[in-house]
Amino acid sequence: MSSVVPRSFVSQKINGIVFAFIAAIGFSAKAIMVKLAYVEGVDAITLLALRMAFSVPFFLVVAAYSSANKSSVSLTSKDKWVVVALGLTGYYLASYLDFMGLQFISAGLERLILFLYPTMVVIITMLLYKRRAGRTELLALFVSYAGIALVFLHDMHVSQHDALLGSILVFASALAYAIYLVGAGQIIGKIGATRFTAYVMTVACAACLLQFAVTHTLADLKLSSRVYGLSVAMAIFSTVLPAFLLAAAMKRIGSSYTAMVGSIGPVSTIYLAYIFLGEQLSLIQICGSVLVLIGVLMISLKKQTN
Q: Residue 301: what pLDDT?
């Protein structure tokens, strides 16, 4: 007797995949817009502050709505401090290091390095729980980092200025995001993904604006209309929408499947950079990208079957 899968279940899965796909493209497009803005002479701190300034109203509205909901779980003092710490680590520090790194490396290499965060989550978890890595995990780590090495060597070969410094900064950004993910699991389960996203992003926005206020003057906001246009686009299409779409996707298809769909991100960045930035698209880059994707998918699939 064959079982019929409910139509609503299928629709939910399809919606989840679509949400994850759009979120991955949106996050990937951020690197392209950052590189286009840098051409206008804006610095990383100012650009990050503009991105967050245009993003924060959306997150404040969602945070206020979530808090006003009678069914919402009240946060303890400890929960609030955890939210602040995670917001500072996962979105403020990670974003700042990423924007700094993008000054020195290609958008394609940046996205590939950032995409290593699932492997970092595995390593951090093993260190925390003193668990030895299995053969599949070790192979996945080797394959992923071999892919990064290939693309890095390609960027060094085309004489990128300070490619090593840029790569270290973006790697540190990925590590900060991985730490955030490891710490976020428990509190997301308590208060919900959408509410949590609104809270941590509000914290990150406040930190970015405070950093700008301390290090810059209002005169530094005299920028071209192109920079402001890119900042608004980055806020809406590469920050607010992807953040909530990602949360919606994880709710419908789970974090592992969301990560697998998100593997389109690094590939799309490389091709978008080729189209909009004129970055080289070589066989070495393609091979390195494939290796990184294989390694990350090996990790994601193993987590799914555990």
A: 64
